[in-house]
TrEMBL record:
Species: Geomonas paludis
EC numbers: 2.7.7.81
Annotated keywords: Nucleotidyltransferase, Transferase
Family matches, as PANTHER family: HAD SUPERFAMILY MEMBERS CMAS AND KDSC, N-ACYLNEURAMINATE CYTIDYLYLTRANSFERASE-RELATED
Domain of life: Bacteria
Name of this chain's protein: Pseudaminic acid cytidylyltransferase
GO terms for MF: N-acylneuraminate cytidylyltransferase activity
Amino acid sequence: MNIAIIPARGGSKRIPRKNIKEFCGKPMIAWSIEAALESGCFSRVLVSTDDAEIAEVAKKFGAEVPFLRPAELSDDHTGTIPVIRHAVEWVANEGERPEYACCIYATAPFVTPADLRRGLDLITKAGCSYAFSVTSYPFPIQRAIRIDGNGRVGMFDPAQFGTRSQDLEEAFHDAGQFYWGSAEAWIAEEKIFSEKAVPVLLPRHQVQDIDTLEDWHRAELMFRAWREEAK
């Protein structure tokens, strides 16, 4: 069996109640739940939360919330991997044996059922520990600049000043949507960014990190345009 785990902590600081704030007509978390359910990849779709209101919203949109996440896994410093490990072990202790577990972020409205299926296909064929969403940087990272304390500019890598952008290696970053992993990898808390992982490539117009209100506004504009184009 495969399970989806959507971590959704209640204590968001920069955007209060971010996980259930309305995004383009639905609570933010609803988009992730619906994509997981529609993908057909999962025997169970679970939400791991410490918050009763988030739990009720999650159940309304079809997810299971069979436990409330313990306080020691709900602070500002707890990483994703221990949270997913806790959920995988909870399911195993209930007598079920998940083969793969997919962490889907609650703030990933651009996640699609097709991309979740593609991730499952990649991890099973590759026989690796993880498969997760990535996208390319829109500009060569080797030509990045910094602004110092005096308001002056400098290059991170001055040696690349004269290098043509087309001659620089393309770079990618975590798209922050989903992370397929074997149950064993989650339980062992293996690192995700390693040679044991394969990328699920996404187009840049389908990726937006949402940490600030400016991010939120940009994401809604992108989302509406994306949905309109898909009609």
